[in-house]
Specification:
Blueprint: E1 2-5, E2 14-18, H1 22-26, E3 55-59, H2 70-73, H3 75-85, E4 100-108, E5 111-113, H4 116-130, E6 133-143, E7 146-156, E8 165-177, E9 182-190, H5 201-209, E10 224-229, E11 234-238, E12 241-247, H6 257-264, E13 280-284, E14 292-297, E15 316-320, E16 323-331, H7 336-352, E17 356-357, E18 361-365, E19 374-382
Parallel strand pairs: 1-3, 4-9
Antiparallel strand pairs: 2-3, 4-5, 6-7, 7-8, 8-9, 10-11, 11-16, 12-14, 12-15, 13-14, 13-18, 16-19, 17-19, 18-19
InterPro entries: DUF2358, NTF2-like_dom_sf, Reg_factor_effector_dom_sf, SOUL_heme-bd
Region (Disordered): 26-47
Protein name: SOUL heme-binding family protein
Length: 396
């Protein structure tokens, strides 16, 4: 535990910041304002390295009056305030600075500031260099003078020619000064690293890794939101999309590709040529990865009832309802052996983190199945909740 004694006289308060417990950190989405605990199946194991906690204790001297009670501070109103205020973190409106102490403490794995001006400087720097897109998932009270938020931030590094996209997900623990009911600290914890204390070389390396050039074809793809970016996988919430599919032979195979490709090239009831999209999916429905279909994603602006009928009986049109999936990226020719290894690795990672995978997986190839480029393979993940296809309860 690191202890910092501030040398200048300020009103007395002692606030402890800690990494959120595993259950809170694993809860990616929940209905707004919910205070219910997440399902027990989301709790991570007790691996000491994985659940490592750290604290920064601020001992402030010169007490002039006793601190207010948590009821007087009205933490619930601050929760409501953050739901409204934090989505404006990087837009033209910005946050309401009157809710923060002048000496607000900010920490993330590679940045620290000890004043409101430094806090605002950090926000402005990120805004100018990275054009952040910030998504707030939930806000809840986690202590008498403590509020925790979960978020996703996608940033584009605009000053380099290839403009890499950096993704961070995690939680922020925000401390409240009992003297005045204002936020006196903001400590970020990233899902992608274990060492979140400042200064984290692991965190710096995580930033550098995302600066590499990683391209996929500039074609329309299913829409998704990243809920969690861990060290070895992502958790994504996919929007619905439509596929043309037929039977395949194996997860890494291409049998049936010419048939489904023929459908979009005009072999349909109206001879309509449909724009190409990415990726090409092969989906295994069983644990042995033996029962396989091959699928081409159709343009997102199409409705299934407006699409022409396939000329061939073995081609089917189907709406995929979307939902939550765990994803791992890899490159190279996806042989059956490599795909099998990646599937096992992904399944192992998500089980280790307290998530329960469904049977089967999908391999997504971002060019035709006979070529070698970048791929994404993902296994459906579920909690103990009842769900359909990839869909999950919002408490995930």
């Amino acid at each position: 535990m690191a202890i910092t004694h501030l040398r200048h006289p300020v009103p007395a308060v002692c606030v402890t910041f800690r990494q959120p417990n595993a259950a809170a950190a694993a809860s990616f989405r929940r209905p707004p304002h919910s205070q219910l605990p997440p399902p027990s199946s989301l709790k991570a194991n007790n691996n000491k390295a994985h659940n490592r906690k750290w604290a920064v204790k601020l001992s402030l001297v010169g007490q002039s009056s006793p601190p207010k009670s948590s009821e007087e501070v009205e933490v619930e109103k601050l929760v409501e305030f953050l739901y409204d205020d934090l989505p404006h973190l990087f837009d033209d409106r910005g946050i309401d600075t009157t809710a923060y102490d002048d000496r607000v403490i900010f920490r993330d794995p590679i940045t620290k500031h000890d004043s409101l001006s430094g806090y605002l400087f950090n926000i402005a720097l990120l805004k100018n260099l990275f054009r952040p897109q910030f998504q707030l998932h939930w806000v809840k009270q986690t202590g008498s003078y403590e509020i925790t938020t979960r978020w996703t931030m996608v940033m584009t590094f605009v000053i380099v020619p290839w403009k890499p996209e950096l993704v961070f997900t995690g939680t922020s623990v925000m401390g409240i000064n009992p003297e005045n009911g204002k936020f006196c600290s903001h400590v970020d914890f990233w899902d992608s690293i274990k060492k979140n204390e400042y200064f984290s070389f692991e965190g710096l390396w995580d930033v550098f890794k995302q600066l590499r050039i990683y391209k996929t074809p500039d074609l329309e793809s299913p829409k998704y939101q990243i809920l969690k970016r861990a060290a070895n996988y992502e958790v994504r919430q996919y929007d619905p999309f439509i596929v043309a599919e037929t039977n395949g032979d194996k997860l890494s195979g291409s049998k049936g590709f010419n048939n489904v490709a023929g459908y979009i090239f005009g072999k349909n009831s109206t001879a309509e040529k449909i724009p190409m999209t990415t990726p090409v999916f092969t989906q295994a429905m069983d644990d042995e990865l033996s029962k396989v279909s091959i699928q081409i994603v159709l343009p997102l602006d199409k409705e299934i009832n407006s699409l022409p009928n396939p000329n061939e009986e073995e081609i089917k049109l189907r709406k995929v309802e979307g939902g939550i999936a765990a994803v791992v990226k890899f490159s190279g020719k996806p042989t059956e052996e490599i795909v099998g290894e990646k599937e096992k690795e992904l399944r192992s990672h998500i089980i280790r983190d307290g998530l329960k995978p469904k049977m089967g997986c999908l391999l997504a190839r971002y060019n035709d199945p006979g070529r070698t480029q970048s791929f994404i393979m993902f296994a459906k993940v579920v909690t103990s909740c009842t769900l359909i296809r990839m869909r999950l309860n919002d408490a995930f």
